Amino acid sequence: MRSGKEKPASGFKEQPHYHGHRERLRARFREAGADALADYELMELVLFRAVPQRDVKPLAKQLIEHFGSFAEAVAAPSSRLKEIEGVGEAIVTELKVVEAAARHLAKGKLKKKKLLSTWSSVLDYCRTSMAFADKEQFRIIFLDKRNQLIADEVQQTGTVDHTPVYPREVVKRALELSATAIILVHNHPSGDPTPSSADIQMTKQIIDIARPLGIEVHDHIIVGKEGHSSLKGLRLIS
Length: 238
Hints:
This protein has two domains: about 15-105, no CATH class; about 115-230, Cytidine Deaminase, domain 2, CATH 3.40.140. Helix content is about 45%, strand content about 15%. The chain contains nine helices and five strands, in the order αααααααββαβαββ. The chain has a five-stranded mixed beta sheet, sandwiched between helices. α2 (about 40-50) crosses α3 and α2 crosses α6 (about 90-110). The longest helix has 20 residues, at about 90-110. It starts with 16 loop residues before the first helix and ends in an 8-residue tail after the last strand.
């Protein structure tokens, strides 16, 4: 009779303690979907590829706790991600692949569609692209006469609370692309999407320049972690 812990039979390689956990988590994701997982569990699934030989649950929980959510962690700048102990290039790359995939999926829903009839897709795309950025960005979605996407461009990137916008440059770019309508979008890194007086004034300036040239400003959308605001929906522009 052998006392103590049994050793594995000769030729049998004992699996690490976390191996079973990984398989159970993958199975739950396959069977129940992402909504059945906590943010840190979804983060674990991403980390599995970058860290194949270590228990990643503590690191996954730390990333969620530090940044606030799965979405915020994935969208965090690479430099901030690397401040977390245990996060190297492999992990940053996996997170940025997830971020890029989300943006491409959201943008794909806009292509070859009349954007005004798929407004939810527009909002989803704007939030995916900008809501969790750490600096303000000013984006323009250019549309043709059928309200289909011509181009989507970030015109300016600013600081945490300001982005310089030049109304004449906005209209000039619309003319270069032969756009007949535009949707203005920018983010508030503070999280609160409430438009400021400067946001409203700038939007009205663009409308005043664009309208005589046959370019319609359909809306100005402000996105943040706490939701979004529509200047047209708030009746701040017409």
